[in-house]
């Protein structure tokens, strides 16, 4: 955790500052990320639940994140190796303020788990999130003229199921290939 930052010093053309950090104990880090109950004056006001993990992580990033530049010029704050844990037997961790096409989310996840790379399998189920990435125009613009329309290449599910295997197309048999 960052505890202090010195004033900017100048030595010739070199500008620098000192940042002092202290290491949080494992218990402090676990309490922060696993969603401790919110309390006021020692009295619990909101019981611990999954959303608190996310909110606590956001707070942790804002308070302790390291500034990084990005391609947009806006900049980001980041922390290394943050994790959250959810009991998928009781709920699905979907934190959003907008309506979600739940059937599409579930079908896409199953498609990933199968290791599929064929966007047409989703399109046939009226799920069109990958259509643009498998269109003839998109593939041609990227130089993938040999791929048929809908062939996304080695996307997420392929990497999950066949990591290290050479991509041979959406219909290839990848048994005994990859890790």
TrEMBL record:
A biological process from GO: dTMP biosynthetic process
Keyword Methyltransferase: yes
Keywords: Methyltransferase, Transferase
Recorded superkingdom: Eukaryota
GO molecular function: thymidylate synthase activity
Boundaries of every Thymidylate synthase/dCMP hydroxymethylase domain copy: 53-166
Class of this enzyme: transferase
Organism annotation: Rhodosorus marinus
Pfam families: Thymidylat_synt
Annotated protein name in UniProt: thymidylate synthase
Annotated InterPro entries: Thymidate_synth/dCMP_Mease, Thymidate_synth/dCMP_Mease_dom, Thymidate_synth/dCMP_Mease_sf, Thymidylate_synthase
The EC number(s) this enzyme carries: 2.1.1.45
One CC-aspect GO term: mitochondrion
CDD domains referenced in this protein's UniProt entry, alphabetically: TS_Pyrimidine_HMase
The keyword Calcium belongs to this UniProt entry's keyword annotation: no
